Amino acid sequence: MNSQKDLVNYLINTNALHSPDIIKAFIAIDRYDFVKNQNSYATYEDFPLSIGNSQTISQPTTVAMMLEMLSPKQGNSILDIGSGSGWTTALLAHIVGQEGCVTGLERLDELVEFGSNNLNKYHFNNAKIIKATDRLGIQGKKFDRILVSASAEDFPTKLTDQLKPGGKLVIPVKNSIFEITKTKDDELKIIEHYGFVFVPLIYK
Length: 204
Prior knowledge:
- The chain is α/β, with parallel strands linked by helices.
- The chain has helices at residues 4-13, 20-28, 60-70, 87-96, 109-120, 157-160, and strands at residues 49-52, 55-57, 77-81, 101-106, 127-131, 143-148, 163-173, 176-182, 188-194.
- It has a domain at 62-194: Vaccinia Virus protein VP39 (Rossmann fold, 3-Layer(aba) Sandwich), CATH 3.40.50.
- The chain is built from six helices and nine strands; from the N terminus they run H-H-E-E-H-E-H-E-H-E-E-H-E-E-E.
- It has a seven-stranded mixed beta sheet with strand order 5-4-3-6-7-8-9, covered by helices on one side. The chain has a two-stranded antiparallel ribbon with strand order 1-2.
- 42% of the residues are buried.
């Protein structure tokens, strides 16, 4: 595949992408702007690419599927944990629009800078990437959606506490992706999707 258009068409044809707002974000946000120069030849291929520090920009199919599970809406407040290259943060910022906001969290200083520089190419004023602390998420805040792009060893219940009622969390745990919805009564509805591989989520 030689262009973002080719990539988007591929994701639509394989049914990884189907929601109009998410498709529009994939068209508008070019993966090329988020890969390292040495990997630019493979920008539009459907596999993860190294961004240094043993981290990757995720496989496009996996990103598309996770965003479809997350079901972000215009005006949502979203926490993007493990923002890495900034690609998912930018996609989400495009979807939520000016009435929404996206906060990317990244533990590594080099990737906070790399992701922020990439995000700045799109001049969003509703999104930022900040350095994560040793505590998972952002304590004392609640979000409509939380996306995690690295794999936890165990289900981190502290993140569900940071969801608003009616909110949704999408997180890899070991080799599955868990799609968790918090009901209006603060109950959790959980769907497990099997068969994925991610870099590990590091937290205390």
